């Protein structure tokens, strides 16, 4: 399948997982009804609560999490491929969680898992300090996954600032890169569009980037503006600001070969020494 319809679900996740999954499920159904065969949700689909210690009572191990089986069953019911941008998942071996993306096949089976590699440990000037590594354990491996329609490179949010990850995924065969996110309003206004388009342009890949948007129950404000970008850097679809909703784009994988043929930078890369004076 060289052509398919993709959708991004833009959310405003709160502090109650059941309510978040109900909201996501409603939009996933709507996206499937409009013909999308690949549907992506944002980072922290099940829970967005950065208040110290507040999320711990609601986060479960993967085998016990109630969100995942519901979304797997929905994917199978609708016969769609679903990227759950990420769920907060408790880990057996330590106190920290995983920020874990799940790729679910049209049969409801888990095709791939990806734990966010780069932790958002920053002070961005919005009155809050973010130390993701206090609550989350970073992942250790990049993930390339096959689907019925494309090879996907899985990433999450802050990963977008590390272009070497995307280059490796594209060189390994990724045609579509996913960047589910919960960008802050401050960093989103400054950098979101530039970073997402840059990752598409420099790899000659489609980028599908579903986002969180608006003022959340925990006090955090996210930027929204979910994007689907072509391998040439064109914005094919963009969400209306920070409001929850769905965006769609028709993906033609022939555009990947065309862009990489015009700018073959993935094959032109050279190793070089660093000279310091």
Quick synopsis:
This protein is an alpha/beta fold. 27% of the residues lie in helices and 29% in strands.
Give an overview of the whole structure.
Strands 1, 2, 3, 4, 5, 6 and 17 form a 7-stranded mixed beta sheet that branches. A 6-stranded mixed beta sheet has the order 9-10-11-12-15-16, with helices on one face. A two-stranded antiparallel sheet has the order 7-8. The protein contains 7 helices and 17 strands. The chain has helices spanning about 15-35, 65-80, 130-135, 165-170, 185-205, 255-260, 265-270, and strands at about 5-10, 40, 60, 80-90, 95-105, 110-115, 120-125, 130, 145, 150-155, 175-180, 205-210, 215, 220-225, 225-230, 235-240, 245-250. With about 280 residues, the protein is α/β, with parallel strands linked by helices. The model has no long low-confidence stretch (mean pLDDT about 95). It has one domain: Nitrilase/N-carbamoyl-D-aminoacid amidohydrolase (4-Layer Sandwich), CATH 3.60.110. Helix 1 (about 15-35) runs parallel beside helix 2.
């Amino acid at each position: 399948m060289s052509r398919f319809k993709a959708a991004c679900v833009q959310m405003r996740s709160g502090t109650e997982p059941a309510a978040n999954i109900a909201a996501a499920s409603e939009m996933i159904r709507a996206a499937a009804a409009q013909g999308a065969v690949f549907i992506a949700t944002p980072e922290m689909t099940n829970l967005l609560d950065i208040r110290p210690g507040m999320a711990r009572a609601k986060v479960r191990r993967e085998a016990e999490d109630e969100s995942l089986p519901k979304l797997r069953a929905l994917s199978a019911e609708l016969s769609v491929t679903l990227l759950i941008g990420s769920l907060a998942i408790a880990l057996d071996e330590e106190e920290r969680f995983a920020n874990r993306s799940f790729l679910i096949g049209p049969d409801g089976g888990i095709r791939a898992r990806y734990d966010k590699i780069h932790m958002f440990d920053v002070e961005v000037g919005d009155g809050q300090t973010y130390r993701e590594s206090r609550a989350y354990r970073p992942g250790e491996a990049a993930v390339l996954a096959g689907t019925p329609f494309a090879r996907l490179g899985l990433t999450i949010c802050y990963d977008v600032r590390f272009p070497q990850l995307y280059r490796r995924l594209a060189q390994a065969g990724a045609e579509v890169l996913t960047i589910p996110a919960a960008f802050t309003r401050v960093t989103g206004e400054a950098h979101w569009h530039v970073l997402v388009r840059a990752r598409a342009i420099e790899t000659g890949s489609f980028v599908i980037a579903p986002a969180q948007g608006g003022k959340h129950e925990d006090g955090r404000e996210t930027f929204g503006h979910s994007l689907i970008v072509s391998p040439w850097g064109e914005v094919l679809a963009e969400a209306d600001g920070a409001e929850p909703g769905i965006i769609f784009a028709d993906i033609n994988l022939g555009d990947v070969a065309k862009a990489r043929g015009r700018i073959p930078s993935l094959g032109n890369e050279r190793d070089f020494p660093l000279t310091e004076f």
